[in-house]
Every structure is written in structure tokens, then in C-alpha cells.
UniProtKB/TrEMBL annotation:
Catalyzes the conversion of oxaloacetate (OAA) to phosphoenolpyruvate (PEP), the rate-limiting step in the metabolic pathway that produces glucose from lactate and other precursors derived from the citric acid cycle. Pfam families: PEPCK_GTP (PF00821), PEPCK_N (PF17297). The lineage of its organism: Bacteria, Bacillati, Actinomycetota, Actinomycetes, Propionibacteriales. InterPro entries: PEP_carboxykinase_C, PEP_carboxykinase_GTP, PEP_carboxykinase_GTP_C, PEP_carboxykinase_GTP_N, PEP_carboxykinase_N. The keyword Transferase applies. Its EC number is 4.1.1.32. It comes from Nocardioides ganghwensis. This is Phosphoenolpyruvate carboxykinase [GTP].
Length: 612
């Protein structure tokens, strides 16, 4: 491409290392054009995408897209962390040698963008000026315009983020090539897709998908996998699949910051967008910092554990989002927000969108409606009960649209962390909340997080599995080393956060209803946790943590059946004793697991046996 230098000049992309990187991959992929993207290009790119049929209008200032029907979730099996050192092999990171994976990906990418435009997206995964900024800059190259539009919503995008790097080489090189989606053998033995993070080279090579979780490289590959690796290699920080919220108490004037890891599609976004329950809204306000990723570090001056959200938008699960469960989410995706929906049901005549749980019943007049695959609902047979929207259908919107966005979400300093919680979909055993005051026991608890897998990953929906720290799909290096690093980072803080394990998903074993209404009411157990930290309540001690007594939990304005409440505030001792055996097996798989973690395990097991 003879005019590449001129294109980069005109775009004001001055970093010589970025220019070399662009050139290398423009040649390899055979792209016909190169275009450098800034956030200010959004309106034009939206118009182009509509004109090209890649997006449709969903009313004014709102858009609809459909991904290929075999390309609707993250593929964990095809996701690989590669390095040059086999010591980086973990149980979950699908480690492979960089020397094997890089050439393989280059082969797949060779010529695969012929005739297409390669977009150059410079981005920053941090608020500008944050202490972790040296690890936050990146450049994603992609051959798909809708990926660009999603990246503009999900990350801070613009050439200024890479032009002025102190070390011009210190950006993550992220390459996304979609490939011929109809001929990639998704899910067959001949699967052509590969999603590789070459972590020790800070290079990300993803081939074979345009679904957000595989294609938005700033978010998942850099924000989580590469971030985790860099945080460990530099000994400076943690990159976690955490939401991050502020809980403001108007009566005392205090704001607490709580972060926490739940596996994909297990409640992070809903918790972060939470409107306090009506009965508590006069006193408490929940503010949104982040809903999927938090980077944590210890501030050198204050010695406090700090956190920030490296993202700039929300990639939320649509299912069950409605006025009752999450009014803030609905407000963030109204017309005029420039939000993009993916794989929901759509009515091209009226521009409406719908998903399961949006309203109790689907629109009664199916005329004009298309399901997520694009098939007219009017043509369906009466006994066809397939969902209208894909269970992993999503909305994408920027943080400016989130009504409860924290006023200081963009502050370079980040916020001090008071509590770290873990949770997941667990139908039995796990109570509503159990608090843990000891660091090693908190980390042990995170490492043994067991939950049902969800539709956010291909082919595992509903399987009960361990998902350490909710990071199983994003683990970048060995789990034992990870535990050591976690203990070191958090242990260096002057004031320790309180830990807790929460579960909004316990079910009645007989009729299967959720024992806790969840959503906005999840604020209540969190308030109890903060009161416990402040010494205002004392709870009930059990072997697996401190549990609220019924009268400590503020249930004003709620109506939970007594039997349900009792069940979610009780420990099932036998079930837990059985669980300890599984945990032992689980932890034994990991090399170099710190002795503190084993000690915590033995302490919990002994306390369980001693309980009557
Ligand atoms: P994330 O992927 O972890 O951010 O999870 P989301 O907040 O997007 O929620 C995933 C799914 O779980 C959505 O369908 C939500 O409606 C549902 N969900 C979230 N919070 C709760 C809760 O407290 N109770 C119940 N029953 N469902 C919830
Ligand atoms: P989620 O984000 O955790 O909000 O579902 C996307 C993902 O993890 O795939
Ligand atoms: Mn996630
Ligand atoms: Mn989410």
C-alpha cells in the first residue's frame, strides 16, 4: 500500500513504533485501505455502517446489529495465553509456546483482510493520568466496522493516547481479523478460530469471530488477560473481572467503595447500575464506577488499596433487564444514547427491540418482528417456543449514559477499596452473604468460587464448576503464582479490605424459585457488610465466615417468606463438609500454591468439623 505513510501522516499518528506495527499487519492481512480512528469519527462510522447494512436503526440515535449465528459468545476452548516460558502454564490459561502460536495466527491472518479496510484504533484502558497508565495504552487493528463502533463505546479512543508515550514501544499490539465466518468450523474438530494473547510480548492475535467478547480486544484480552500478566510481571497491580461501586450514606456523609468478582453473566452489571430500593433510597445512593473490570494497586503515598475501571462503557446482558430489575440500564439505552444492541429481537418497521424479560410477555402483535437470527416471528409455528433474543444478547453504551455514574469515575487517582466480594450462580450451599475478615481466607474463598457457568461462554451453560476469582476464562499465568501475587498486592495495603462471598441465586430445592429477590435488594446485604466492618453489627460466626442475623439485615419495605430467609441465612454443614473434599482436589491441581492458602483451607475444614 503505497500511500500508507500519507494516511498515517494525515491522521497525525506520529508514534514511529505504532506506525511500524500498522504497516506490518497491513501487509500481512492484505487490507486494501487503512483508516485511523478517533472517538470523534463515531457519527460518520455509524452512518457508513447503516448504509452498508452492518447496522440498522432502532429508533433515533440507537442501533441494532446481528452477529453470525455461530458467533454469539466467548469461546473459552479456543482462547490461549502464549509465552516463551513454560513456567507460565496454568490449569486454566490454555498455555502454549509463543513460538508455536504466533506463526499459526500469522498464517491464518495472511491475506484474510483482502479488499477490506483495516481500522487502527488507538486506546487507553485507564482514566488518563492514572498511576497504571504505563500499562494501559494499546492499538487494536480490526477489519470490521461494527467492532470499531463497539470499541469507541467501550474504551477511551484517540491518537493522543499513543502519540505521547514516554516509551513509544509501550503499547499493547492487538490484532483482530474476522475471517470468513461461514467457513471456520466453529465448534467442530476442524475449528479454525484462535484467540491468543502472547502475554510476554504484549501482543494479542484474535482470529475468527466478530462477537464482542472475542473481538473487543481492549476489554477482555488487554483489560483482563494482558493486564493480569503485566500486573504480575511488574509486581504492581491486579487486573480482575470485578464490578466497582460506591455506596454513599447521606446520613453519615461517608462513601464506601466495594468491588467484586462474579463470573460472566452473573450479576456484575446489575449490581453496578443499581438504584437503591425505594425504602432505602432516601438514605443511600449507589454509584457506578465499573461493571466488568477493575485494576487494583496500592497507592504509594497513602498506602491504601485503590481501584479503577479501565473501561469507558458497558457491554451488558439484555436478558431480564426491565423497569423493575434495572431502571438505570434502561435509561442508559434509550433512543438518543447511540447505544448498540446485538442479537436481541428487532422490529425493522417500528425500530423497536425486545428480549426475554423486557416485558412479562413478548409483543402480542408479532407482525414485523424478527427473532435474533433475523427470522420473522409471524412465520413461526405455534408450538415453537424458542427464545426471541439470544440468551447472550447484549447492549453497548458509554459510561456518560449511565444515570448513576460516579461523579469521580474519570479521576486519575482511582478510589480506595473498602470491601471485595465474590459470588456466582449457586443454587444451593452458599448463603446470601458470609463475611471474611482474614486476607488469606478471603483469597482462599475467591480461589474456590464454585458456580454455574453461563451462556456468556459457548457450550458450558449450567455446568457447576470452579471459577477462581471469577477469572477462569481470563487467567493469564499459573494459579499458584496468581494467589501469591494477590496476597502480596492486597497484603501491602495499610488498611485491609473486608472480604465477602455473596449469592443472589439460591433456589428452593422443591419448586426452583429464587429464595432472594435479588437486583436492587442486593444493596441490603452489602450495607450489612459495611456495618460489620465498622463494628456496628457482629453477625453470627460460622466456620465459613460471619453471617447476618435476621434482625441485622435491613429488610424495610420487603416481604421475604420466613422460610426462605432462614434458608439463605443458614449454613448447610454437611453440604459444606462434602465441598471441602472437592476444594482440596481443586486446589491440588495448582503448582506453587502459597502455604497461607492451604492453612486457610485446613482452618476452615477443622472449624467445620468442630461446629455442632
Ligand atoms: P454480568 O454479566 O456479571 O455483568 O451480569 P448481569 O448483571 O448482566 O446479569 C446477568 C443475568 O443475570 C441477567 O439476565 C440479569 O437479569 C440476571 N441477574 C442479575 N442480578 C440478578 C439477581 O440479583 N437475581 C437474579 N435472579 N438474576 C439476576
Ligand atoms: P460480562 O462481560 O461479565 O458482563 O458478561 C462479558 C464477558 O465476560 O464475556
Ligand atoms: Mn465479564
Ligand atoms: Mn456485565
Amino acid at each position: 500500500m503505497a500511500d500508507l505513510e500519507a494516511v498515517l501522516d494525515e491522521a497525525g499518528l506520529t508514534n514511529p513504533k505504532v506506525r511500524e506495527f500498522v504497516k506490518e499487519y497491513a501487509e500481512l492481512t492484505g487490507a486494501e485501505h487503512v483508516e485511523v480512528v478517533n472517538a470523534s469519527d463515531d457519527a460518520r462510522l455509524l452512518e457508513e455502517a447503516v448504509a452498508a447494512g452492518e447496522l440498522q436503526r432502532a429508533g433515533e440515535g440507537r442501533y441494532y446489529s446481528r452477529s453470525y449465528y455461530k458467533d454469539t459468545a466467548r469461546s473459552e476452548e479456543r482462547t490461549i495465553v502464549a509465552t516463551s516460558d513454560e513456567k507460565d502454564r496454568g490449569v486454566y490459561n490454555n498455555w502454549r509456546p509463543a513460538s508455536e502460536m504466533k506463526p499459526m495466527l500469522h498464517d491464518r491472518m495472511r491475506g484474510a483482510s483482502e479488499g477490506k479496510t483495516m481500522y487502527v484504533i488507538p486506546y487507553l484502558m485507564a482514566p488518563a493520568g492514572n498511576p497504571l497508565e504505563p500499562w494501559a495504552a494499546g492499538v487494536e487493528l480490526t477489519d470490521t466496522r461494527t467492532v470499531v463502533l463497539h470499541m469507541i463505546r467501550m474504551a477511551r479512543v484517540g491518537v493522543q493516547f499513543v502519540n505521547d508515550l514516554e516509551d513509544p514501544d509501550s503499547f499493547v499490539r492487538a490484532v483482530h481479523v474476522t475471517g470468513d465466518l461461514e467457513h471456520l468450523g466453529q465448534g467442530t474438530p476442524d475449528d479454525q478460530r484462535y484467540f491468543v494473547t502472547v502475554a510476554d510480548e504484549r501482543t494479542i492475535l484474535h482470529f475468527g469471530s466478530s462477537y464482542g467478547g472475542n473481538a473487543l480486544l481492549g476489554k477482555i484480552a488487554h483489560g483482563l488477560r494482558q493486564g493480569a500478566y503485566d500486573g504480575w510481571a511488574s509486581r504492581k497491580f491486579l487486573a480482575e473481572q470485578y464490578m466497582l461501586i460506591g455506596i454513599h450514606d447521606k446520613e453519615t456523609g461517608r462513601t464506601y467503595h466495594v468491588c467484586g468478582g462474579f463470573p460472566s453473566a452473573s450479576g456484575k452489571t446489575n449490581l453496578a447500575m443499581m438504584a437503591a430500593p425505594d425504602a432505602l433510597g432516601d438514605r443511600y445512593h449507589v454509584s457506578f464506577y465499573g461493571d466488568d473490570i477493575a485494576w487494583l494497586w496500592v497507592d504509594e503515598e497513602s498506602g491504601r488499596l485503590m481501584g479503577m475501571n479501565p473501561e469507558y462503557g458497558v457491554f451488558g446482558v439484555a436478558k431480564d433487564t426491565n423497569e423493575t430489575t434495572n431502571p438505570n440500564a434502561l435509561a442508559s439505552i434509550e433512543e438518543g444514547t447511540q447505544a448498540i444492541f446485538t442479537n436481541v429481537a428487532y422490529n425493522p418497521t417500528t425500530g423497536e427491540v425486545w428480549w426475554e424479560g423486557r416485558t412479562p410477555k413478548p409483543p402480542s402483535n408479532v407482525k414485523g418482528w424478527l427473532d435474533w437470527t433475523g427470522a420473522p416471528l409471524a412465520d413461526r409455528k405455534d408450538n415453537d417456543t424458542a427464545a426471541w433474543a439470544h440468551p447472550n444478547s447484549r447492549f453497548t453504551t458509554t459510561l456518560d449514559n449511565v444515570p448513576n455514574i460516579a461523579p469521580d469515575y474519570d479521576a486519575p487517582a482511582g478510589v480506595p477499596i473498602d470491601a471485595i466480594i465474590f459470588g456466582g450462580r449457586t443454587r444451593d450451599r452458599e448463603p446470601l452473604i458470609r463475611a471474611i475478615t482474614d486476607l488469606a481466607e478471603g483469597v482462599y474463598d475467591g480461589l474456590t468460587l464454585g458456580a454455574e457457568a453461563t451462556f456468556a461462554a459457548e457450550g458450558v451453560d449450567g455446568q457447576l464448576r470452579y471459577d477462581p476469582m471469577s477469572n477462569r476464562p481470563f487467567m493469564a499465568y499459573g494459579e499458584g503464582d496468581y494467589a501469591r501475587h494477590y496476597l502480596d498486592v492486597v497484603g501491602a495495603a495499610k488498611e485491609q479490605p473486608i472480604f465477602a462471598h455473596v449469592n443472589w441465586f439460591q433456589k428452593d430445592p422443591d419448586d426452583g424459585h429464587f429464595l432472594w429477590p435479588g437486583y436492587r435488594d442486593n444493596l441490603r446485604p452489602l450495607l450489612w457488610l459495611l456495618q460489620l466492618k465498622n463494628g456496628e453489627v457482629s453477625g453470627r460466626r460460622t466456620a465459613v465466615g460471619i453471617i447476618p442475623t435476621e434482625d441485622e439485615l435491613d429488610l424495610t419495605g420487603m416481604d421475604v417468606p420466613a422460610a426462605d430467609l432462614e434458608r439463605i441465612l443458614t449454613i448447610d454443614k454437611e453440604r459444606w463438609q462434602q465441598e471441602m473434599g472437592f476444594r482440596e482436589e481443586h486446589l491440588s491441581q495448582f503448582e506453587r500454591m502459597p502455604e497461607e492458602i492451604w492453612e486457610a483451607h485446613r482452618r476452615v475444614a477443622a472449624d467445620l468439623d468442630a461446629e455442632d
